[in-house]
Amino acid sequence: MNTQNSQVHQTVVSLINSICQKYPDELAVIIEDRQLTYGELQQRAEQLFQYLTAQGWLKSNSLVGLCIEPSFEMLIAIYAILKAGAAFVPLDPDLPRQRLSYMIADAKLTTILTQQKFAFDIEPALRQSSLNGQMCFLDTPTVWQPLTTSSALGSVVEPEQLAYIIYTSGSTGIPKGVMLTHQGLLNLAGASCSTFNLKPGLRLLQFASISFDAAVWELVTALCGGATLVLGAREQMLPGQLLANFIAKQKVQWVMLPPSVLATLTPFRNQLPDLQMVVVGGEACPISLAKAWVSTHTRFFNAYGPTEITVCCTIYEFQQQDMSLPIGYALPNVELYILDEELKLCNRGDKGELYVGGMGVGKGYLDKPEITSTRFLDNPFGVGKIYKTGDIAYEDPYEPGLLHYAGRCDRQVKIRGKRIEVEAIEMILAQHPDVQTNAVKTIRSTRIESSNMPENYGVSMLVAYVVPKAGQFLTEKHLQRFAAEQLPDYMVPTRFVFMDELPLLPNRSKVDRNALPELPETPSFLTDTMDNSLQIAVVFDEALELPTGTCKPHTNFFEMGGSSLCIAHVLYALDRDFGVTLPSRLIYEYPTPSGLAQFLERFKLKSESVANDRHIDLQIEARLSPDLNTAIWQQPAQAKYDCALITGTTGFLGAHLLYELLAKGSYRKIYCLVRAESDADAITRLRAIFIQYQLPITRLAQVDVIAGDIQQPQLQLSTTLFDKLSEEVDQIYHVAADTSYIKPYSLIKKSNVDGTANLLTLAAHRRHKILHYISTMSVYGAVTSLLGINEVSEDFDIDFSLPIMSVEYGYVRAKWAAERMVRSAKEKGLAVSIYRPGFISGHRQTGVANLNDTFYRFIGGCIDMGMYPDWPEKYWTPVPVDYVAAVIAHISLDKKYIGGNYNIVVPREQELNNVEIFECFRELGYPLEKISPKNWLNALSTLPTINPLYPLTSFLQEKVYQNRSTILEVHHRTPICQVDNTLDAMQSSSIVCPKIDKELMRLYLPKFDKNFSTRQLRNITAINY
Questions:
Q1: CB of 42 within 8 A of CB of 23?
Q2: Within a domain: residue 477?
Q3: In a domain, 950, yes or no
Q4: 449 shares its domain with 464
Q5: Which tens digit of pLDDT belongs to each residue from 598-630?
Q6: DSSP secondary structure string, 576-610?
Q7: What is the distance of C-alpha 873 from the center of its chain?
Q8: Do 1011 and 886 fall into the same domain?
Q9: Start-to-end CA span in the chain (Å)
Q10: Does a structural domain hold residue 103?
Q11: Which Pfam families did the record assign (predicted)?
């Protein structure tokens, strides 16, 4: 079977060039309400090309790493790389570090184009790869310099040159880099344009991750046809309602999806009137799914092709009257051969292994000649190479050239569109010291779906059957963690079954995989008699997007990857299924289905309250340890500035404070205690944070970074090192804190209370050390609303706030207990200064901010809602991070200010109230409506999952005071916070107290646009140490 067309001798680069010149004003890319034309695409690609070549990072025939989220910069970077005659290598930052390091080293990547948020992922991988490589951040202005020449960019690119390398799983457990060429890419683009009749204005969805070859097809199909590529945030691509909403809103006309994802859109297909064409690929597609979609007059294509032949080699347009769903006919310039074991052609209708030849066949596996020679063979029927697919197929007996798929002839499988070699998983598991032998196979688990879903459409999952070594005990959790450290998440088995021995074939040469036991069917959660714990386990499965039956009654939600967004889904489902509204912290307190079910029973019987930890006696919690050597504090501390220890430097404030202290140069040595497995990991983590916050990493050469944990006795340091610090350190800066809003006090106290107690132990060990404790303005509590106190001084006795601490969330109560403990130490003689910042906002020069902060989520969430609550007496007390860091550094380095209390906020006359802040944003162009607090709180119930406030919905709606007021309602009035001590200390400096006004909001505006409009927020839980 052979099809050919007249192939113009050019590359995909020249084709896109011609499109850019022909349609300069047509839209190339859309992201939300942002647009990029073809003319702008070409111009920005020239800018990037100019910068990278000037740095010597982009050359013809070089390989360039690309670790980036869907964005304009992603497409621009690919275009610039291809024009230079180089090849791009996609890297997924979510991969385990070992795998990422392997890929970087294997491809010998010395340049990686990325974004600052991924510095923490890439930096250690680069270092482990032992290459002297560098990262280029595409989200910094340095890259985008004005063009110095208007000449056309690029090198002469030959069709045989590499265009990109995609890494696939390998049967040895080692990823293989597949090398694909420009001619294969061009052939794919040409076939797509003719098959789908592409034209300017047609909107195509970019769904696949750039690490998978389907994304390459989406990209070249759009750009080579002059169409418009529509990009969205990862959250908007979640299968089901969210993806359907996005497609409808963006009026997408063409999508390419795995069948398992398309199936989740089936119930919403009548709500997608603009959708004209659907392409499925990556896994076998049920004919019922195809029939469901063509019934709505949507053109439906089934595509097939391994990565090694440039994404796709056959395609078939399904018709309503068809009785089967073939994989289709060969693309132009593609040759298909169905061969027997002797490499002879099979008769039509007979099954054999499919081999593919022609222009799309890649150059093999990077630096793996042996395995390349077994899969890329000399073509016995023509010229060039043919690729051995490992797939069984047959030619239709009645339709020449039409192919049908009939399964695999090896053990490579596809799950949710991702190709997996099960041998790779087995080899990784075999490396575990307590595993004797193992076997992995896929099992199709039937899920409960909508009645609109295709009949018998299930979800495949990986199951590992493991025989432990004699005398050894293994658990599912332990092996999942082991596998997750070395394999991408989609290759980690969902279930582990432990056996005494594996069944063997009669000749005992191999495992009899057909004899491996099936898993029991998951019981339906729709039956009234189902145990609550099993029903909640299914809720966990839904929230974590796992196959039904994955979570068990004793499965820990967080060990399975639970995040704040997943918690919100659980709370919604519990309200739906049990009719109870619970706060987020309950999931932390009861993280297993069985524990949560038992709580619900007690709650139903009124024997347990939701607020079961709000009445913990904080006075007892704040007591100093009786083992503390307070006698040493009776000796005056020496105000020396030779050596300091800082905690929390991987947090937003801590990193900036470290930078300020280093810039001042007062200390000869600074130790940084960082939570990490090793000192090397600690250094890597701190370097990545400095890069993320745009702080110069050259300063870190002056820092001694040590791995430890403030939650543990002796800070998890050896006795020798703990004693050494006790002798050397003069001053301690305790910044570290768990700033999660939704964790209960019982969990957050480990970091914030116990951690402070452990730092006090250090301050009292061997000699008296000065402590600089970073507290928070929140320790005052709602004194205005609940106690009628309108003004608080820096020396305000926080004991007055104790009676109202029960309404506060875990973080505030833990910080109150910690500050009260520190004050008790001060009363015992400890030299300690207490600093209380307000909400720490972005840097005044760079605009860099901690976007997980409540303040930023509140602003971004209201902007997304188009409304805000009318609280004119609420002040958020935002204060720029550079100001906070500069103030703490200045005060701490002047011995006459040791022992004071310092509120670090701006005076009331220099800040804006809640309403005034949103009026600034209205003036800056955001459509915002002021509404009553009650209506605003009610509107939270209908937030989409992509709203920044969605993970906090339960937290914000919980009634915390007399069962009638939420936390924001309790804090709707803010006291005037005096700053006399702070301003007095600042008189001897050049530090200027900022004004919170529209100009500052304008500086922060790009951060709101970038991070809230595109919904790229990460988990809200932040642990800064």
A1: no
A2: yes
A3: yes
A4: yes
A5: 888 777 665 455 555 666 889 999 999 999 999
A6: HHH-----THHHHHS-SHHHHHHHHHHHHTTSS-T
A7: 37
A8: yes
A9: 62
A10: no
A11: AMP-binding, AMP-binding_C, NAD_binding_4, PP-binding
Q: How far apart are CA 315 and CA 330, in angstroms?
A: 7
Strand partners, 461: 443
Phi and psi (nearest 5°) for 686? -70, -40
pLDDT tens readout for residues 321-352: 998 899 999 999 999 999 998 999 999 999 99
546, 560 in Cβ contact below 8 A? yes
CA dihedral defined by 528, 534, 539, 541, rounded to 10 degrees? Answer: -140
Is-contact 466 440, C-beta < 8 A?
no
Token pair recorded at residue 246 = 């996005």
Query: How many domains is the chain partitioned into structurally?
Result: 3
> 275, 202 in Cβ contact below 8 A?
no
Residue 549: which CATH number? 1.10.1200.10
List the beta strands (DSSP E) in 119-227: 134-137, 162-168, 176-181, 203-205
Residues 507 and 526 in one domain: no
Domain match, 510 and 529 both: no
DSSP string, 420-445: EEHHHHHHHHHTSTTEEEEEEEEEEE
Model confidence over 435-481: pLDDT tens digits? 877 889 888 754 433 333 334 444 577 899 998 877 777 777 788 88
In the block, tokens 């293994």 appear at 474
pTM over 0.70: no
Distance of CA 185 to the CA centre of its chain: 30
User: Does 510 share its domain with 655?
Assistant: no
CATH of the domain at 973: 3.40.50.720
Whole-angstrom Cα distance, residue 952 to residue 185?
Answer: 45
Residues 429 and 506 in one domain: yes
Q: Name the token pair of 94.
A: 């979510």
Give the amino acid at 36: L
Q: Could you tell me if residue 945 is inside a domain?
A: yes
- Examine the domain organization and report whether 958 and 990 are in the same domain: yes
Given 500, 515, 530, the domain boundary residue is: 515
Amino acid, res. 928: L
Q: Are residues 756 and 783 in the same domain?
A: yes
Cα–Cα distance measured from residue 600 to residue 578, given in angstroms and rounded to the nearest whole number: 9
> How far is it, in rounded angstroms, from Cα 308 to Cα 586?
49
Close Cβ partners of 598 (under 8 Å, ≥ 6 residues apart): 590
Q: What is the extent of the structural domain holding 538? A: 522-558+576-599
Q: What is the CATH number of the domain that holds 457?
A: 3.30.300.30
Tokens of 804: 């109202």
Query: Cα angle at 427 between 423 and 429, to 5 degrees?
Result: 115
How far apart, in whole angstroms, are the C-alpha atoms of residue 1018 and residue 118? Answer: 12
Cβ distance 15 to 21 under 8 Å? no
> What would you report as the CA-atom Rg of the chain, rounded to the nearest whole angstrom?
31
